[in-house]
Specification:
This protein is mainly alpha-helical. It is 72% helix and 3% strand. The chain has 8 helices and 2 strands, in the order H-H-H-H-H-H-E-E-H-H. The protein has a two-stranded antiparallel ribbon with strand order 1-2. The radius of gyration is 15 Å and the shape is flat.
């Protein structure tokens, strides 16, 4: 289902459809979360990361998606580390597939609602 919806999302008409985009984002985030949490094999988790990056790059990004994708990728990175961390450490130190984690949070942080997103990490 994820792959079919991603293929449909390549159509400009559907990218412009607010309802399709909202549902696509919701389904994609659920799929990616399951992919990361229900996969044991490191190679399969790397495949989940590649799918997440493809999903992100194809998305018309908004603050909510930005924040949720940041949290999803941060959870994946945390799982790969042996010690606990603070989000600020991840943002400054960790690169995920050549992309800094801040890329995922940047839209949420620039949003007029950024104070609400930031409160979660205070």
């Amino acid at each position: 289902t994820f792959t079919i919806i991603e293929n449909l999302y390549s159509w400009p008409e559907l990218q412009a459809d607010e309802f399709f985009t909202r549902d696509r984002n919701e389904l994609g985030l659920k799929y990616l979360d399951k992919c990361f949490t229900q996969t044991e094999n490191k190679k399969q988790k790397e495949s989940c990361l590649e799918q997440a990056l493809g999903f992100w790059r194809a998305s018309v990004v908004n603050a909510e998606l930005s924040f949720k994708m940041g949290n999803l990728i941060a959870s994946y990175v945390q799982e790969q580390r042996s010690q606990p961390f603070h989000l600020s450490e991840l943002i400054s130190d960790i690169k995920v597939a050549q992309i800094k984690l801040l890329e995922f949070y940047s839209v949420a942080l620039k949003s007029p609602l950024s104070e609400f997103y930031c409160k979660e990490y205070q």
